[in-house]
Design goal:
- This is dTDP-4-amino-4,6-dideoxygalactose transaminase.
- InterPro entries: DegT/StrS_aminotransferase (IPR000653), PyrdxlP-dep_Trfase (IPR015424), PyrdxlP-dep_Trfase_major (IPR015421), PyrdxlP-dep_Trfase_small (IPR015422).
- Pfam families: DegT_DnrJ_EryC1.
- The chain has 386 residues and is α/β, with parallel strands linked by helices.
- The protein has 13 helices and twelve strands.
- The structure holds pyridoxal-5'-phosphate (PLP).
- The site of pyridoxal-5'-phosphate has 14 residues, from helix 3 and helix 4.
């Protein structure tokens, strides 16, 4: 058996994107320019939207922040979200001056529990920020009905869910805003990068402006052969724009998005079948009305049912050359949120229990069949010992 280390979340990089980056570098235009525009057009088409509705940015965190600002979220507002997410979801809310408010997850889907949302709504609640955890779409019919009743903006954190659909509709297009990540480990990568899509074109235009210092014309147009044009600063914006070198990677990653999805689906189903009899909890089978994005395959290893603890399992996997991930320690486990927001793990018991027991297996489309088998053999060996 090969002892080569299996890197968790290894990207699937092909010759096309390597050559496209070189071409972009030789073009002399590295910043936000024609490649970013092409990537926005391709992404919008992939989501069934108009090109103006998609704004490429330098991270999903930036996309979340801009969506909240476009929705008018600010100090004194509350935004409901899930405790089982990456810290960026909550931090983006905090950076608007608003307060994130946690709603516990459904222990089966690991997504925000729609039946627990209403109890957390107050007169200050302005928006809902569901996260399609692991690539499984949230219960959007219920979430959108609550949003309608209480006039809340819905911002979908689609960092795990670029390929997902819910009752035939693409994730990110169900709510008012959809935020995507192209970080190195995500299903589509540009190294670092993100995209925000907006139902409302005027809000997309505002986010495009805010993403580049609040200037009225982007740099590409300023310096292009159309002639120099003065820009005007109309808001105190941010430095959130994507570079052409990143978009050069993204256009080819997006062109292969279905192949990557098929491969991860195969691996995901292989894990489910091969690990079915082990003393762990496997992810739930997705219902027929969704397309799962297969971003994460998570096991729950809890010391009362499994022969080893989650953290011992992680150490043993690493020792045999297999990188694993933890998605996530629930947000209330972190000292910042405890100290500044008073969050306690017991307030969201389902997410906290998942956070203590969850571990994610490698699911990169770049994994070979032999590597997948090596992961299965290692998991089985660790969990079958008495
Ligand atoms: C990765 C991730 C983010 C942040 O994405 P970046 O592109 O790294 O800013 C936000 N939310 C979730 C759920 C994520 O997994």
């Amino acid at each position: 058996m090969s002892q080569d280390f299996i890197v968790f979340g290894a990207p699937d990089i092909c010759e096309e994107e390597i050559l496209e980056v070189i071409t972009t570098m030789r073009s002399g235009w590295l910043g936000t320019g024609p490649k970013v525009k092409e990537f926005e057009e391709l992404f919008a088409a992939f989501k069934g939207m108009d090109a103006e509705q998609a704004v490429a940015v330098n991270s999903c965190t930036a996309a979340l922040h801009l969506s909240l600002l476009a929705a008018g979220v600010g100090p004194d507002d509350e935004v409901l979200t899930t405790p089982l997410t990456f810290c960026a979801t909550a931090n983006a809310i905090l950076h608007t001056g608003a307060t994130p408010v946690l709603v516990d997850v459904d222990p089966q889907t690991m997504n925000i529990d729609p039946s627990a949302i209403a109890a957390r709504i107050t007169p200050r609640t302005k928006a809902l920020m569901p996260v399609h955890f692991a690539g499984l779409p949230c219960a959007m019919d219920e979430i959108l009905a609550i949003a309608r009743d209480h006039r809340l903006t819905v911002i979908e954190d689609c960092a795990h869910a670029v390929e997902a659909t819910y009752r035939g509709r693409a994730t990110g297009t169900l709510g008012d805003f959809g935020c995507f990540s192209f970080y190195a480990t995500k299903n589509v990568t540009t190294g670092e990068g993100g995209m925000v899509v907006s139902r409302d074109i005027a809000q997309a235009q505002r986010m495009r402006m805010l993403a580049l210092h609040g200037m009225t014309r982007d740099a590409w147009k300023r310096f292009s052969d159309e002639g120099y044009a003065h820009y005007q600063v109309v808001e105190a914006g941010f430095k959130y724009n994507m570079m052409d070198m990143q978009a050069a990677i993204g256009v080819h990653q997006l062109a292969r998005v279905n192949g990557g999805w098929e491969r991860r689906k195969t691996i995901w189903n292989r894990y489910r079948e091969a690990l079915a009899d082990l003393p762990v909890i496997l992810p739930a089978e997705p219902p027929g009305y969704v397309r799962h994005a297969y971003h994460l395959f998570t096991l729950q290893i809890d010391a009362t049912h499994s022969p080893v603890s989650r953290d011992v399992f992680i150490r043993r996997m690493t020792a045999v050359g297999i990188g694993v991930g933890v998605h996530y320690l629930a947000l209330p486990a972190h000292p910042y949120y405890q100290d500044h927001l008073g969050w306690r793990p017991d307030d969201t018991p389902h997410a906290s229990a998942i956070g203590r027991s969850t571990v994610s297996l490698p699911l990169s489309p770049a994994l070979s069949d032999a590597q997948v088998q090596r992961v299965i053999n290692a998991v089985t060996a660790i969990l079958c010992q008495a």
